[in-house]
Please model this.
Amino acid sequence: MKPILFNTDMVRAILKGRKTVTRQLVKPQPKGPLVPTLPGGCWPGYFEEVGTSRVQRPPYRPGDILYVRETWTVWNGNYEYKADVDDGYGPFCSNCTLDICAGDCNSILKWHPSIHMPREAARIFLRVTDVRVKRLQNMTEADAFAEGFEAIVCNHPCDIPCTDCMNTGYLESAMFGFVDMWNSTIKPADRALYGWDANPWVWVIEFERISRKEAMGDGMD
Model:
C-alpha cells in the first residue's frame, strides 16, 4: 500500500465521487514519448523512452492500493479531517451549537499537513486502474471534470450570441480551475519547465475508490 497526497479541495472531490484521475510530473522529463515496455521484458511495468535505451518507472501501477493523506488533526482522541470542515469551522469548539459556530475553530484546532498523516489515520482508499503518459495540455474539459474541477455555467436567457461566456456555455470552465491549481503547485522558478505553458509530460493516473475492507484484503505492505 502506497500513500498519495491530495489537498483539501481534491479530497472533497473524491468524497463526492467527482475525482477519478490525477496527474503527476514525469521526472526527469523525457525527450520523446514514453510507451509501456513489452510484457515479459527486463523492465515489466516501466515505460520506455522512444528512440533511446532509457526507461522510467511510474509512481504507481494498475492494481496498486493507495491510501490518501490529507490535512488532519486529533480531537478528543479521534482523527478529524479538514475536508469535513467548511471554511475552517466545525463542531469542534465548545461554542458551537446547532451547527452554528460562534468561535474560530482554527484558533482551537491545530491542523497537521497531509505529508505528516500516519497511515492508521487514513479513511480514503483508492485502487489504481490505469497509468499512461500524456502531455499536460492534451486535456479536454471532460478531463478537467474527472480531475475533480467544476465549471461555472452561464445561464444566459437570450437567443442572441452571448458575450458573457463567448458562446462556450461557461463563465469559468473546469479547465480554468485545473490550470490555476496546477501552476499553484509548481515553484515559480520551475514554471518555465513544469508549468501549464511548458506543456510537460505527465503521468495520468486513474483510480477508483474502495472500502477499507477491500484495501486491507488486497494487502497492506
Q: What stands out?
A: The helical segments are 8-15, 141-146, 174-184, 191-194, 212-217. The chain has five helices and twelve strands. The chain has a mean pLDDT of 84. The CA atoms of residues 1 and 220 lie 5 Å apart.
